[in-house]
Amino acid sequence: MVKEIADSVAADTSFPSNYIASDPSAVVTDDSSALADIPIIDFSLLSNGIPETRAQIVRELGQACEEWGFFTVVNHGVTEEMRAAMMDAFVGFFDLAAEEKDEYLGRRVMDPIRTGTSFNSTVEDAPYWRHFLKIWVHPVFHSPTKPTVFRYLAKELLKGIWDSLGLEEKEMEDALDLDSCYQVLIGNIYAPCPNPELTWGLPSHSDHGLLTVLMQNETDGLQVMHYGKWVRVKPLPNSFLVNLGDHMEIVSNGRYKSVLHRAKVNNQNTRISIVTAIGPSLDTVVVPAPSLLQRGNHPAAFRGIKYRDFVEHQQSSRLKEKSVLDHLRV
Ligand SMILES: O=C(O)CCC(=O)C(=O)O
Ligand SMILES: [Fe+2]
Questions:
Q1: Whole-prediction pTM value?
Q2: Where is the signal peptide (predicted)?
């Protein structure tokens, strides 16, 4: 499908009109927004077992979650070779002939291996300039090579974030059932677009899970909302970008907010991002952590919903800011 778009663009440099955003004037054309000065977390100090240095990183994590909902992870232990192998595997898939890829054309949003265009082209007015491959990799593994290292990174970060809220690890296990956590691996490809001012790669949205871990090729395009302003993200070499998802906002009772982000396309280079999203188990009903409510005598800011129902609803709806989470606000 990427080839189809690329070929149609090569044959005829006009932009396919069905891709024009329903409100093209809302697509940003100005790339002069500030570059984000994103907090940096040294993962090796979080996970090396030394309490003093860990405590310092836990404080930094808490601050990053509160002020940004977004941070960069360095010294994560994932080799450059493994990152390159992941990138190659996704590129290999996107380069397959359309008939081969079409075997995985997702008909249902909860299919464990699903490829497609846009976000959910059955409900959108106009598709986005993006193709994706989504693979469930936990609790049942649906892919040929096992990136357990990603889950380790996310679980250690979750423990650190939980700690920064002053909560016990046992409560995290009870609340989120992380041994059966739902993890999905997504490759996004954004082909060069002749008219980047008319469409999005992905419009403004938050992610449904707890944490999302992202790496990309050398082409930028990600923007995050920070204190009401969009800022451009330029990742550090060999780092992962992490953002908080809607279920972190729910379980922390709104103290840590899921961050709005969006992907811009450009007319020069293909951008590829590989994203792994970690959530609770699909059967968990996540509610604000009880001890956070008791401690501050706060009312619950969110109603609970089974995570599976949240994901299914979010994936079946138009991608629109935090609209699915907003339904759960009390
Ligand atoms: O490509 C990107 O940078 C963002 C991807 C994204 O937000 C997503 O897959 O949810
Ligand atoms: Fe996202």
A1: 0.83
A2: none
